[in-house]
Amino acid sequence: ESFVLYKPKDKVSGDFYWAYLTPGNKLIWAAVDCTGHGVPGAFMSMVGNSLLNEIVVENEIEESDKILNQLRESVIKALKQTGEVGKQKDGMDIALCVWDKNTNTLQFSGANNPFLLLRNNECIILKPDKMPIGYYSEQMQPFTKQVIQLMKKDTIYTFTDGYEDQFGGPNEKKFMAKKFRELLLSIQYKSMPDQKDILDKTIEAWKGISDQIDDICVIVVRI
Questions:
Q1: What is the pTM of this model?
Q2: CA angle 158-164-168, nearest 5°?
Q3: CA 210-216-209 angle, 5° bins
Q4: Which of 17, 36, 76, 78 can pair with 40 through a Cys bridge, CB separation 3.0 to 4.6 Å?
Q5: Residue 52: exposure state from Cβ atoms within 10 A (0-12, 13-18, ≥19)
Q6: How far is the C-alpha of 18 from the C-alpha of 49, rounded, in Å?
Q7: From first to last of its 223 residues, what are the pLDDT tens digits of the chain?
Q8: β-bridge mates for residue 129, sequence order
């Protein structure tokens, strides 16, 4: 079971979601947040989508960390990034999962975007590497891979930062990660359609008359 809550800030988006089922029965999916929104963000989304297809579908790379390492190399090459002062530093943040349905294990690798797993009223957080897909001024390290054994009824949440960062409420403040996790815990046993409806209505009510400040993308998968 799954759903995607996808709410672009403008007609086109810098956030995108991507998924592929391999011939070996591995489901690979990603929530991706590209630099910018609107047309510039949408251009980066097209680049990211194309590169993921090339890396995973064509080249058959199926390890989450290797996918991100190759994606970073490809983005730097495609955008001709050198790290020179004043040069553009476009890139993307990503939460990427590889679910092996044969063993029911899941790999997670993240570039600034985390992974949440809800199980028996507990929220398990897998933290991402604190670096983007693209040129990084600090020393660039290989991306890491975390592996977790899944259980029946586990619910996995991958997302961009648009939901948590939306301003609103009585004091015109950000929704924040803590409130987002509390909301997910409160609805974890509801059906996928109900969860999507609640997430959508909650952020709309929080936003009120305020402008949406960023693209929003939330991917939910129940095992």
A1: 0.92
A2: 150
A3: 10
A4: 36
A5: buried
A6: 7
A7: 999 999 999 888 889 999 999 999 999 999 999 986 677 788 889 999 999 999 999 999 999 999 999 999 999 888 887 666 655 567 899 999 999 999 999 999 999 999 999 999 999 999 999 999 988 777 789 999 999 999 999 999 999 999 999 999 999 999 999 999 999 999 999 999 999 999 999 999 999 999 999 999 999 999 9
A8: 111
Q: Mention every residue, 6+ apart, whose C-beta is less than 8 A from residue 156.
A: 97, 106, 115, 116, 117, 220, 221, 222, 223
The three-state DSSP-derived secondary structure of 94-163 is: EEEEEEECCCCEEEEEEEECCEEEEECCEEEEECCECCCECCCCCCCCCCCCEEEECCCCCEEEEECCHH
Place of tokens 């939460």: 95
For the beta carbon of residue 177, count every other beta carbon within 10 angstroms. 15
Q: Two tokens at 213?
A: 């400040």
Residue 151 tokens, joined: 């259980």
